Amino acid sequence: MAPEAAPEPPHVVDECRGVLFVYSDGSVVRRAQPGFSTPVRDDGSVEWKDATYDAARGLGLRLYRPRRDHLAAGARLPVFFYYHGGGFCIGSRAWPNCQNYCLRLAADLGALVVAPDYRLAPEHRLPAALDDGAAALLWVASAADPWVAESADLARVFVSGDSAGGTIAHHLAVRFGSAAVRGYVQLMPFFGGTERTRSEAECPDDAFLNRDLNDRYWRLSLPEGATADHPVANPFGAGAPPLEAVDFAPTLVVVGGRDILHDRAVDYAARLRAMGKPVEVRDFEGQQHGFFTIDPWSDASAQLMRVIKRFVDSDGRFD
After folding, report:
1. Which catalytic residues are annotated (predicted)?
2. 164-176 vs 128-141: helix crossing angle, rounded to 10
3. Strand order in the sheet with 20-23
4. How far apart are the C-alpha atoms of 143 and 51, rounded to whole Å?
5. Is 178 assigned a catalytic role?
6. What does the pLDDT look like over 231-258, one tens digit per residue?
7. Mapping DSSP to helix (H, G, I), strand (E, B) and coil, where does residue 55 land?
8. Rounded to whole angstroms, how far apart are CA atoms 119 and 104?
């Protein structure tokens, strides 16, 4: 009798940017650091620290603020949330691209910047990340941390996020409206749908975020068996909450002309404006997905920072 063949060892069936590896037996391996090397540019003008907002789940966030000797005595700072991107599958507050962007946000906005981590897929499929985003917002509102208690103006809270973080910002707007948040900044929000938009259909394969990776993120992050028309991904999909009744705070939607997500975000903003919601688009011609975290010191990133600063300084009014 021939000996039984040895079982085939598990092999990689999905991979995301050299960080996330999903194996054929369902196991998941993550690397703590991103697959790129970026130096952190910290000139000391901003101080930062980590805090835990959900001990049971081991979830933390990073707080940034201008050094106290750079501020007037007793100054209260607007609070600016930044939820990182990564297709709900990768990313971290501790990654250098996130660190660099948040350092610049705190310095240029003169704000207390809050950068939360959230549970990632496929181990924790959506809506886990949305629930974590809400938990971080409520934790800051409780002023449990000394930095928040002594520095934050909790009447001036702004919520932003890029890519998947922008999607979190949308869902927080639906959940909280304008009661607790002065304004939202959705940076190239990661929305989906089964019908391709033009920018999706024409996206080149060598784009930073291309169709294959875009679809892979949704496949790994949505509930098992769901399509990209699931209401978590598609704000106008079947089963999505009606947005007409939502009390949206002023919302900036930032898009890039070369981004696969361009058309879907522009359509999102247009539909909300047609409902009478205070939503404006800022279109950065020629820019790719995530240009502001890829190089926070580029000319386009500086322009974006000026747009965000005007929005925050005016308490959510548009130019």
Report:
1. 163
2. 60
3. 12-16, 20-23, 28-30
4. 12
5. no
6. 999 999 999 999 999 999 999 999 999 9
7. helix
8. 25
Contact assessment for residue 155 and residue 100, using Cβ atoms and an 8 Å cutoff: no
Q: How many CA atoms lie within 13 A of 182 on its CB side?
A: 18
Cα-flanking dihedrals φ and ψ of residue 160, to 5°? -135, 165
Eight-class DSSP state of 245: T
Say which of 92, 151, 160, 163 is annotated catalytic. 163
Cβ atoms 318, 250 nearer than 8 A: yes
**Are 65 and 150 in contact, with CB atoms under 8 Å apart?**
no
Radius of gyration of the chain (CA): 20
Locate 65 and state its tokens.
């603020």
Strands 112-116 and 152-162, bridge-based pairing: unpaired
Residues 6+ apart with CB under 8 A from 261: 163, 188, 189, 190, 191, 199, 200, 209, 214, 255, 289
pLDDT tens for each residue of 174-233: 999 998 999 999 999 999 999 999 999 999 999 999 999 999 999 999 999 999 999 999
